[in-house]
Each structure stands twice: as C-alpha cells, then as structure tokens.
C-alpha cells in the first residue's frame, strides 16, 4: 500500500485508523498502524515499539501512559477467531514508534510527517500543549536539523569527523541544539543563556580556564554527559586532552523543559 506524505490540511490514511475512547482520548492500534506502514510481521513492528518505549522513558515520560498493552480478536479461516497481542498507542507513542521504525519503508516518512503535523497543529493553542506535545515539537525540529546537516555533510565530506561531534551514538545533543529544541517547544533561550541556566541549576561549573564542565552527580543521573573532543599536540610534542563537550541527553532535555516551564 502506498501512503502519500500528508501536508497540513489534507486527509490522511492515518486519520482513518485513529480511534477515540469514551473519555475522548485518542489512540492508534499498533496492529492497524503496522499494516498501514507495510510491516509484514508483527515481531518486527513490536521491536520498533520496544525501542519507542525506551525513548519514552529516556525523555522522562512514563511508557505506560503512551503504550497500553491489550489484545484483539482476529478472524481465522473457516470462521475461527484468535486473540492476539496489540498495543494502544497515544499520539506521542505513535510518534516515537514511527521515529524508531524501519527508515527503508516509504510509509514511515508519511507517518512521521503525519504525527509531526498533528503535534504542530496544537502550536496555535500553546496553553493546551501537554509536556509530551511540546517535547515532540522540539524533537521533530531536531530531527529536521539532523537531516539537513546530514545531507550537507554527505554532499561535502562523507566521512566528516565534524558530524561525529554533532550527535553521539546515544542520541544526545550539544547545548546549542538543545537550545533550538527548547525554543521550538516554546521556551525562549539561546546557547549562552542555556549554559548560564545549567550553571545556575548546578548542573555544570566552570573549570580553572572558564570552560563548562558537568558535575559528576548530574552525569550519574543521566541528565548531561561529556563527550571527548580529541587531543592536540604542542610545539614540544606534548599531547594534551581537549576539554570535553557538554551534551544534553533526552532525559535531561525533558527535565529542562519541566524546570523552565515551571519558572516561566
């Protein structure tokens, strides 16, 4: 099934499988969503859901609020029926699932666009945004930034070491990228201002050369990290370690959003 990329205001096949509970809350059946995304086996899609649950927990949200395990009856041959596992996905849960889906599948791009647009529709009424909505808006902005920079680096220098310092394998962000994400989520800040905020929150301190470093308890909590940036050699041949770069984890991003929203 070919699923077109949906633009704002257009109908979507993902709207057709959107369900609403008696209390008015919306959800998507993981079984139905997997078919819309052209997954041939439930096992592969379930793996994407498991990754999405981890991303949800790392963002500071409770996975059980966005991934509700359930079951449904399916029709078998000769009139038989059988219960199979299913998951009721919230909009945020669906968003995280498609972001962790198989990027080689064409409908994945359409689904990412759809759930991003549904989140951004709430931008016209900021007071109604949940924390997860605001975080999703910011993370989508970061995803777009990554895609744009990735494309440019591939064009200019396929193996650019510079890109390695942009986003770590753990999916954390530089303070500059974090400030951009927070801005898209409605928190006005910038790189210098955010560094000052981190220092005031006692997440970071300045070393004897005035360079930002992360307190060890903050590292242990998984809120910030420090990434090595390499070495340099002086005129006498001495090798020196460069000051590591401060990185903001998804958990730290979510915690910052909570703290800065509360102080706004």
Can you put this structure into words, describing what you see?
It contains eleven helices and eleven strands. The protein has 264 residues and is α+β, with helices and mostly antiparallel strands. It has two domains: 13-124, no CATH class; 140-263, no CATH class. A hairpin with a 5-residue loop joins β3 (67-75) and β4. α3 packs across α4 (91-99), α4 runs antiparallel to α5 and α8 (175-184) packs across α9 (191-200). It is elongated, with a radius of gyration of 21 Å. The model is unreliable at 1-10, 122-127 and 155-169 (pLDDT under 50).
Quick gist of this model?
The protein is of the alpha+beta class and 264 residues long. The chain is 46% helix and 18% strand.
């Amino acid at each position: 099934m070919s699923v077109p990329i949906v633009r704002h205001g257009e109908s979507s096949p993902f709207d057709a499988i959107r369900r609403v509970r008696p209390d008015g809350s919306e959800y998507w059946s993981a079984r139905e969503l997997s078919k819309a995304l052209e997954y041939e086996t439930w096992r592969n899609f379930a793996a994407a859901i498991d990754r999405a649950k981890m991303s949800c927990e790392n963002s500071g949200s409770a996975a059980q609020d966005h991934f509700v395990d359930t079951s449904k009856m399916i029709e078998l041959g000769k009139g038989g029926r059988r219960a199979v596992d299913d998951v009721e996905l919230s909009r945020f849960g669906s968003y995280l699932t498609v972001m962790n889906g198989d990027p080689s599948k064409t409908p994945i791009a359409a689904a990412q666009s759809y759930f991003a647009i549904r989140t951004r529709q709430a931008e016209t009424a900021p007071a109604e945004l949940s924390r997860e909505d605001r975080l999703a808006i910011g993370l989508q902005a970061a995803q777009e930034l990554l895609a744009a920079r990735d494309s440019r680096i591939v064009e200019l220098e396929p193996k650019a070491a510079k890109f390695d310092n942009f986003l770590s394998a753990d999916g954390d962000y530089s303070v500059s990228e974090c400030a951009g994400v927070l801005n898209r989520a409605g928190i006005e800040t910038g790189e210098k201002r955010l560094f000052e905020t981190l220092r005031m929150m006692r997440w970071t301190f300045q070393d004897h050369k005035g360079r930002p470093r992360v307190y060890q308890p903050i590292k242990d909590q998984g809120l910030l990290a420090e990434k090595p940036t390499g070495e340099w050699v002086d005129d006498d041949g001495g090798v020196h370690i460069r000051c590591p770069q401060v990185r903001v984890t998804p958990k730290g991003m979510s915690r910052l959003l909570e703290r800065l929203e509360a102080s706004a």
